[in-house]
Amino acid sequence: MTLARKHDVDALVTKASTLIEALPWLAQYAGKVVVIKYGGNAMINEELKRAFAEDIVFLRRCGVRPVVVHGGGPQISSMLKRLDITSEFRGGFRVTTPEAMDVVRMVLVGQVGRELVGLINQHGPFAVGMSGEDGGLFTAKRRGTIVDGEDVDLGLVGDVAKVNPAAVLDLIEAGRIPVVATVAPDKDGAVHNVNADTAAAALAVALKAERLVMLTDVEGLYADWPDQDSIITQITVSELHEMLPSLESGMRPKMEACLRAVQGKVPRATVIDGRVQHSLLLEVFTNDGLGTMVISDPGKQVGKVISDPGKQVGKVISDPGKQVGKVTSDPGKQVGKGTSHPGKQVGKVISDESGKQKKDQK
């Protein structure tokens, strides 16, 4: 005979509360496409790789339709070093020579993508690997960048000029999880290295995704880098546009991608800390979430705001200048009352006991 101890029961109740917290988010995302950009330390740490694969399968089992877009920066750098091929970054982008492009293609399609597909498929026959070359998914257009006010040639680096999502949609409808490597041909057939951040944003727009979530190696966007207490939990399109010129080169492509996604009518795009195990589930299925969320400017977004499990807390309306109803999430102090005037905070901002700002919208 085995006796139940009170602390065991308490632990089980805590687990049940966590599950119930996910209930409104399960309802919101069921049947919806969520595009996840896989990158950073989550790609090289074995425990984080395993946790990420589990998160993706969990989403799929809950009725979400995940699509994974991956880069492979650390693996590409490692292989280039082994082959004694010089590599450099300018403005946050890898300068890619024809010689380096062969390595990029080999690593992304033949190594990183295959490994992730294998990890996901340990939990069921879900993942299918592909690249921007397959089914005409991406058409690239060569791009440069500006560093210190001067144009810089990046070589075989491209932006996504066109997306044909038919092949990805076919996989989604078949119940599969597309795992997309970001190499793509231009209109003349020359294969380019496409930044995974920009590719994920373009695909999210083309798929009319409900969310774009990007894994990084930082906690989020900082208002005053490197002040650890200045993480921005939520930012509007116009506010982010103002900040972009001042961002560090490594963070700028990620936030640019979030900006493009939301401007392309993806309701929300979030940068999260991929160094935290199961950060994807914490972001999607909990009230507070992680990282920095980019949303459209007040007055443009229409729909309900969910904050408290099982309760409709308030609505976002699109009538500029009118006060939007209360938006609360946890008991706390009211910091301020917003309106839908462009660039201003919508709804009340609630702080927790430590005084940190919480998200008023997920």
TrEMBL record:
CDD domains attached here? AAK_NAGK-C (cd04250)
Q: Which SUPFAM superfamilies match?
A: Carbamate kinase-like (SSF53633)
Ranges where the Aspartate/glutamate/uridylate kinase domain occurs: 32-272
Q: Name one GO biological process term.
A: L-arginine biosynthetic process via ornithine
Source organism's superkingdom? Bacteria
Q: Which GO terms describe its molecular function?
A: acetylglutamate kinase activity; ATP binding
- For whether the record's keyword set contains Kinase, the answer is yes
Annotated site residues (Transition state stabilizer) in this chain: 37, 254
Q: What class of enzyme is it?
A: transferase
- Catalysed reactions, as listed in the record: N-acetyl-L-glutamate + ATP = N-acetyl-L-glutamyl 5-phosphate + ADP
State the pathway, as annotated in the record. Answer: Amino-acid biosynthesis; L-arginine biosynthesis; N(2)-acetyl-L-ornithine from L-glutamate: step 2/4
Report the sequence similarity comment from the record: Belongs to the acetylglutamate kinase family. ArgB subfamily.
Write down the PANTHER family for this protein, in alphabetical order: N-ACETYLGLUTAMATE SYNTHASE, N-ACETYLGLUTAMATE SYNTHASE, MITOCHONDRIAL
What does the record give as the function of this protein?
Answer: Catalyzes the ATP-dependent phosphorylation of N-acetyl-L-glutamate.
What name does this protein carry?
A: Acetylglutamate kinase
